[in-house]
């Protein structure tokens, strides 16, 4: 991982548009500054920001638990597809980790980034080449190696860029 200034971060995000996954993840603990950074990125790249958990929960509210598990990925994709064809910033992605929805959060973000630029916050850490959410033993705990897109670790206004192959 290397420290990165904001202009280099923007260049890195722009460069993902030529990749298989057009995805950049801003990972950090709660109150690390991910949303503030995402707003700066959105302004500079002229991208809309959506609160994914809010929009997804509104759409899933009328469904029972089984229907939610069956439909969550399609509904989340619809939320993104409706108005955000070229690119967007996703904030508040925590609902993707709800174990009752049976989603692979990272796989979902990769899938939706194949056809559009996605910059997403991740309320967790990058450690040992893996993105992690929650802690071992928690029902929503998630960890998976990253591959094919940049991950930015955000900690108290310090940005570290991790490139994956």
Strand order in the sheet with the most strands: 1-10-9-2-5-4-3
Under CATH at level 1, the class stands as Alpha Beta
Radius of gyration from the CA trace?
15 Å
Terminus-to-terminus distance = 13 Å
Total count of helical runs of at least 4 residues: 5
SSE pattern, N- to C-terminal: EHEHEHHEHEEEEEE
Largest sheet: 7 strands, mixed
Could you tell me the mean pLDDT? 88
* Unreliably modeled segments: none
- Structural class label: alpha/beta
Helix content percent band: 25-40%
| CATH architecture classification name | 3-Layer(aba) Sandwich
- Number of individual domains: 1
Number of strands: 10
What best-fitting shape do the alpha-carbon axes yield? globular
Strand residue percentage: 25-35%
Description:
The protein has 165 residues and is of the alpha/beta class. It has one domain (2-162): Rossmann fold (3-Layer(aba) Sandwich). The chain is built from five helices and ten strands; from the N terminus they run E-H-E-H-E-H-H-E-H-E-E-E-E-E-E. The strands form two sheets. A seven-stranded mixed β-sheet has the order 1-10-9-2-5-4-3. Helix 3 packs across helix 4 (65-81). The radius of gyration is 15 Å and the shape is globular. The model has no long low-confidence stretch (mean pLDDT 88).
Task: Give a brief description.
It contains five helices and ten strands. It is of the alpha/beta class and 165 residues long. The chain has a single domain, classed as Rossmann fold (3-Layer(aba) Sandwich).
């Amino acid at each position: 991982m290397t420290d990165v200034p904001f202009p280099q971060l923007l260049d890195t995000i722009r460069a993902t548009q030529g990749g298989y996954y057009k995805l950049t993840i801003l990972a950090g603990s709660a109150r690390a500054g991910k949303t503030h950074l995402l707003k700066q990125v959105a302004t500079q790249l002229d991208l809309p920001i959506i609160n994914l958990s809010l929009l997804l929960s509104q759409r899933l509210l009328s469904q029972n638990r089984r229907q939610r598990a069956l439909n969550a990925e399609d509904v989340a994709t619809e939320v993104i597809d409706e108005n955000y064809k070229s690119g967007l910033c996703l904030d508040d992605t925590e609902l993707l980790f709800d174990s009752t929805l049976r989603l692979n959060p990272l796989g979902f973000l990769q899938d939706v980034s194949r056809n559009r630029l996605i910059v997403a916050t991740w309320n967790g850490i990058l450690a040992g080449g893996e993105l992690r959410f929650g802690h071992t033993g928690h029902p929503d705990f998630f960890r998976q190696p990253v591959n094919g897109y940049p991950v930015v670790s955000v900690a108290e206004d310090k940005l570290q860029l991790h490139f994956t192959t």
